[in-house]
Write a structure and sequence with these properties.
The complex is a heterodimer of chains A (582) and B (601). Chain A has 582 residues and is α/β, with parallel strands linked by helices. Chain A has 22 helices and ten strands. Chain B contains 21 helices and twelve strands. The chains are: A alpha/beta (582), B alpha/beta (601). At the A-B interface, helix 2, helix 3, helix 5, helix 7 and helix 8 of A face helix 2, helix 3, helix 4, helix 7 and helix 8 of B.
């Protein structure tokens, strides 16, 4: 349970909301108990009086009927208040959880997120946050309410006769504590099996669907389908086992509530006849005990979620506790931006943290003079992207130095370095926001004229002008409403707004068709004047235009020169690029 | 989503025109278990009534008649029987509900998998495998609550209150009236909860998922934000947007929760009115509503015990409403996959080619236009491939190579013209038998859950373990088998050992060896391979093609050179055929492609 503590602390600003949610819930339940208990007592007392069996001459009907009306009102208001306040608390908590996680993750980015965490994992983080959010509304709050209500009812019963309180507490604890523990234990194994089976079925289905053509031709489609249906049978069998455990838990809880009332009544009758309390109290006790179980009954279901919530908490803590891979000098303490932006890699070596294999870069020397262009060519995994990422300080090199304008890049503040180096890659994210907001990321102060100018230069202005909502058009999830070429052009326009002296372009045309690629390269080079550019690409058009090509193999630069020179002198390059493919 | 059909029972059996109608039609297959659930729930309701009567009687005897506990032992005994019986019924209800849901999910899963099989690989590719897989799994799971809990509860919410209402009415028309007035006709009530709960859960869900999507978008774009040094400001923006979502959501919820508050109010007020009416009757302030009968304490308490039970089924229904919303959301998507019209699939005929014969294929004036596309993907395409011939089909991407492949594999129907196999039209051949005579080596072979051996035989019982071993050896997989811990029995793919691109390609070749089919189709057999793998693949390919008819798609001219004959496709038309040297000498399209240098990528 320790993993939940940080989140309980995180919720501290919202404790007032949670407090009021618990109070409202408790009031609702107590009012509901009071309503039935007082009604039961009122009926019994009135019946006794009506038959002339009562000792007093006057029967006060106003107090009980006012109490009954009051309880009814409180119950209604309490219920409404509880739901509103509990949801308010939940949403506030959700918001702070997200901001908290973002603040934890932000310093680790991009290194921490880039290598180990795929998009799938990010979705899981989001889902974890959502499920952790239910910790309070589904577990903490019902537990507290159950404790308070049980406490109050037990106190009242104790005042009447301690044995009654004892019986009530015994049954309530059995239903609210013992039962959840037992069913959780019973369900743990089956639950795990269900999860495993579901995951397995998911993978199998996905593989079968992805390979539908292979299976059809191999005549194996029907066989595979039958296998999946057989797996499905096993899953359904496990789920029915789980349903039996769940059903058992509900059934036993119902049993406890009935038995508690029966036992309480059984004990109370002699007490009433001994004169410990008036006979009408018998009805009050029975109704109160029955109604009080309403507080306890939701607990077994709540605790079934606890395992999931704890797992979510553990994985979020693991994410948040990872250390940032690089640190920057504080704002204002960094070196000022140089006039000459020559980039020099000196004997740079790097191995990804946690990787045991070969180093990603080995003693790389590279010079990119100001206003020059250089292409990095090599098979995937040869170290091109790593080289680019070191220049943006996603990581720091293990050995050697990287300098811009003669100054080690580690001495620049983050802001300064980001201003100097712009990275455009196929992974450049397009936010599901308006085109304007996407562009303003690069320069929050840009006016419309500047934005349109950048779009113009990226050859996108015509397209945007034709959109009905122009700059306010929402890009869609991951830029889904743009074609591949348009999305790249938008990323280019955004980069143009940065006015950085150094550009890194990491496979900017990957995944584009021939025409879009041609257009992109044309536009790109038209905008490169006055900038240095490090271009990772195999596009022939690009290779023809750059001033220098570095050919990389296994983390080393093994050849440098122009395209014809490398074709002539570098067999690896010839093989990779020469036949037009890689 | 289409507007909900609010008129059940009009044509429930066959009507699958809307997701809701389909859900209702589907519900028929689990009718028996659902009714079991309802019957158990009803009997449990009866038990609750008996329990109330017993409690009322015991209290009455103790309070009014001063009866000793020992005289009441029989009634306590009855309680100890009825209460466990009720618990048992609750248990049974849960189990039956699960059964009902299992039946439905099994049936829908079968239906969906059959549908996907019928729609064919092209449809699956267009729809994308991942969302389809999640439909088969998660979306069908989302139907659970609807069938296991919601539907039976819907019946119980009518039956149990009706039972209690009738009992109350028979004792006192005033109490009956109180129940009836506070629940002014249950259908109306249900509609009210329904509307409230529906808009509540839908809006709540929408808001929450929009908030989650925004958060995910921010996390995914964190690298980009960082590179524009905007990442720190973004945490403020995140807080602000969460805040505005919260405000929007709460505005909706505050109204939506009113419906549950109304239900709560009605429950409370009916208990209060019942209690006050009965109390005043005992005190003889009121002299009506009891059909002139004397009201005993037992009867009064009995009615009071029943009051909360009258509303409980309705409240349960309200709390299960989200299951309905969830199921409807899932049904929407499932219904779309099951019933949306898809392009026609080739149906095939009854003819079966004699096995063991070499195959000759002829295309006659074949044309194919994709739906919603104006220009033809393949046009006036005529070509003969002799038995035992190795033909390369060359062309830039988009020239129509894949269309040709899919027509021949039987994944697309021939729209115009004919494809003849050994002189018989392809459309007359039994599709599965025809596909059985093809060995296909795709560019990116798919691996399946299971061992390396399973992946070679693909579960075909006719392929023996020895045949698998031989095929693996001939496909140059020996080094891989030695590397894997359990050899051929090692699990591979997502759950096991990852294969490199070259190994996967050789695995596909092993599949082809194991099948020993007369027609081999190759798609870019060496694309993307390093030299070592290329050599291995080419070596085993040379063995595979002996005495077979081979169709090879490629846009690598150095690979095409290996074929006996080359056909050049350009924008859906056949422009040239001939041997490498003949085509080169002719100086046409092929020669131009070759000259353009190797530049084409």
């Amino acid at each position: 349970m320790r993993e939940l503590l940080p989140f309980v602390r995180l919720a501290r600003p919202h404790w007032p909301w949670l407090f009021w949610a618990v109070i409202a819930g408790t009031v609702t339940l107590l009012a509901s108990i009071g309503l039935l208990a007082v009604s039961g007592w009122f009926l019994s007392a009135a019946a006794l009086f009506g038959l002339g069996l009562a000792t007093s001459l006057f029967f006060d009907i106003f107090t009980p009927s006012a109490a009954i009306r009051g309880f009814a009102l409180f119950r209604t208001l309490g219920r409404y208040g509880e739901r509103v306040v509990a949801h308010e608390a939940t949403l506030r908590l959700l918001s702070s959880l997200r901001v908290w996680l973002y603040r934890q993750v932000e310093p680790q980015a991009p290194a921490g997120l880039l290598r180990q965490r795929s998009g799938d994992l990010l979705s899981r983080i989001v889902a974890d946050i959502d499920s952790l959010d239910t910790l309070f509304i589904k577990i903490v709050s019902p537990t507290l309410i159950a404790l308070l209500v049980t406490g109050v009812v037990a106190g009242a019963l104790c005042w009447l006769a301690p044995p009654l309180a004892g019986v009530f507490v015994l049954f309530a604890l059995t239903a609210g504590l013992l039962l959840p523990l037992v069913t959780a234990r019973l369900g743990r194994q089956v639950g795990g099996q269900i999860q495993q089976k579901t995951a397995q079925l998911r993978v199998q289905l996905l593989e079968d669907l992805q390979g539908a053509a292979d299976l059809a031709i191999a005549g194996a489609a029907e066989r595979h389908r039958q296998c999946r249906l057989a797996e499905n049978e096993r899953l359904l069998g496990l789920q029915e086992k789980m349903a039996r455990i769940g059903g058992l838990s509900t059934a036993l809880a119902t049993l406890m509530s009935g038995l508690a009332a029966t036992t309480a009544l059984f004990l109370a009758i002699p007490l009433a006849q001994e004169g410990r309390f008036a006979p009408p109290i018998l009805a009050l006790v029975t109704f109160a005990v029955l109604a009080a179980f309403e507080a306890v009954l939701p607990l077994p279901a709540a605790y079934q979620m606890l395992g999931k919530i704890r797992a979510a908490a553990r994985s979020l803590l693991a994410v948040s506790e990872a250390a940032p891979s690089v640190s920057f000098p504080a704002e204002g303490e960094g070196v000022r931006r140089p006039d000459d932006c020559t980039v020099i890699f000196q004997q740079v070596s790097f191995r990804y943290p946690g990787s045991s294999g070969t180093p990603a870069l080995v003693a790389v020397d590279l010079q990119l003079p100001a206003h020059s262009t250089c292409a990095l060519v090599g098979r995937s995994g040869s170290g091109k992207t790593t080289l680019a990422h070191l220049l943006t300080r996603f990581w720091d090199p293990d050995q050697g130095t990287i300098s811009i304008g003669g100054e080690n890049i580690a001495h620049y503040s983050e802001e300064e370095l980001r201003q100097m180096v712009t990275l455009v890659s196929q992974k450049s994210h397009i936010f599901n926001a308006s085109l304007r907001e996407n562009l303003l990321l690069a320069d929050p102060l840009a006016d419309d004229h500047t934005l349109w100018d950048a779009l113009e230069r990226a050859q996108l202005a015509e397209f945007v002008a034709r959109l009905p909502e122009r700059l306010e058009t929402v890009a869609g999830e991951g830029g889904a409403r743009l074609s591949g070429g348009e999305a790249r052009a938008l990323v280019l326009a955004r980069a143009l707004l940065r006015k950085s002296p150094i550009w890194i372009l990491d496979e900017p045309t990957e995944g584009l068709d021939n025409r879009s690629r041609h257009r992109f390269i044309e536009t790109l080079f038209a905008n490169l004047s006055g900038k240095s550019a490090l271009l990772i690409s195999h596009s022939q058009e690009a290779l023809d235009r750059v001033e220098q090509i570095c050919f990389m193999e296994n983390g080393r630069i093994v050849g440098t020169g122009s395209h014809p020179e490398l074709i002539a002198n570098c067999p690896g390059y010839r093989h990779l690029v020469g036949d037009g493919r890689y | 989503m289409k507007p909900l059909d609010q008129s059940p029972g009009r044509r429930p059996a066959t009507n699958t025109s809307s997701p809701l109608a389909w859900l209702r039609a589907t519900a028929r297959c689990c009718r028996r278990w659902r009714w079991c659930t309802v019957v158990l729930g009803t009997v449990a309701g009866l038990c609750a009534i008996v329990q109330a009567a017993l409690f009322a009687h015991i209290i009455h005897t103790a309070v009014i008649e001063g009866g000793e506990r020992s005289t009441l032992l029989f009634f306590f005994g009855a309680l100890v029987v009825v209460i466990p019986l009720r618990a048992l019924l609750v248990f049974g209800r849960e189990v039956c509900g699960q059964r009902a849901s299992s039946l439905v999910r099994r049936a829908v899963r079968q239906q969906l998998l059959a549908r996907l099989a019928a729609c064919g690989p092209i449809f699956i590719k267009e729809q994308q495998a991942a969302p389809l897989a999640s439909s088969v799994l998660e979306r069908i799971e989302a139907l659970h609550g609807y069938f296991a809990h919601y539907l039976p509860q819907k019946s119980l919410a009518l039956i149990v209150p009706l039972m209690i209402g009738l009992i109350a009415w028979s004792i006192s028309w005033v109490v009956g009236l109180v129940f009836l007035c506070t629940a002014p006709l249950i259908p109306l009530f249900m509609l009210m909860i329904g509307r409230g709960a529906e808009s509540l859960s839908q809006k709540n869900f929408q808001h929450l998922s929009r908030m989650s999507a925004h958060f995910l978008d921010t996390l995914q774009g964190l690298t980009t934000l960082k590179l524009f040094s905007r990442s720190r400001e973004e945490s403020g923006r995140l807080a602000a947007s969460s805040e505005s979502y919260r405000r929007g959501t709460m505005a909706v919820l505050r109204v939506a929760f009113l419906s549950s508050a109304v239900l709560e109010f009605l429950t409370a007020i009916s208990i209060a009115m019942t209690a006050v009416f009965l109390g005043l009757s005992y005190l003889e302030y009121l002299g009506f509503g009891l059909y002139g009968r004397e009201l005993s304490l037992a009867t009064g308490l009995f009615l009071l015990f029943l009051a909360p039970d009258f509303y409980q089924p309705l409240r349960d229904l309200g709390s299960q409403y989200h299951a309905r919303a969830e199921a409807l959301g899932a049904a929407d998507e499932l219904h779309r996959i099951l019933f949306q019209p898809v392009p026609e699939m080739p149906r095939g005929g009854d003819l079966i080619l004699p096995s063991g014969q070499p195959l000759a294929v002829e295309f006659r004036q074949v044309e194919y236009i994709y739906p919603q596309r104006s220009s033809a993907a393949l046009e006036e395409f005529s070509l003969q491939v002799g038995a035992g011939e190795w033909l390369a089909i060359v062309g830039a991407s988009g020239a129509g190579k894949s269309t040709l492949l899919n027509l021949l594999l039987g994944f697309l129907p021939v729209q115009r013209g004919e494809i003849l196999v050994n002189g018989l039209p392809l459309s007359h051949l039994r599709l599965t038998a025809w596909q059985g005579s093809i060995a296909w080596v795709p560019q990116q072979p798919n691996l399946f859950y299971g061992s390396l051996a399973d992946n070679i035989s693909l579960g075909d019982p006719k392929i023996t373990a020895e045949a698998v071993a031989v095929a693996a050896k001939r496909a140059q997989l020996t080094d891989l088998i030695q590397r894997l811990p359990a050899g051929l029995a090692s699990p591979i793919g997502e759950q096991g050992n990852q294969l490199s691109g070259g190994e996967a390609r050789r695995l596909a070749l092993a599949r082809a060896f194991a099948r020993d089919a007369p027609l081999i189709m190759l798609d870019e057999p060496t694309a993307g391979l390093d030299r070592e793998n290329e050599r291995l693949v080419m070596a085993s390919l040379q063995q595979l093609v002996v005495k077979k008819t081979v169709l090879m798609l490629t846009h690598r001219l150095d690979t095409a050179r290996l074929a006996h004959r080359i056909a050049v496709l350009d924008r859906g038309r056949l422009v040239e055929t001939g041997s490498h040297h003949a085509l080169l000498a002719a100086g046409g399209n092929y020669a131009a492609l070759l000259a353009a240098g190797q530049r084409v990528c």
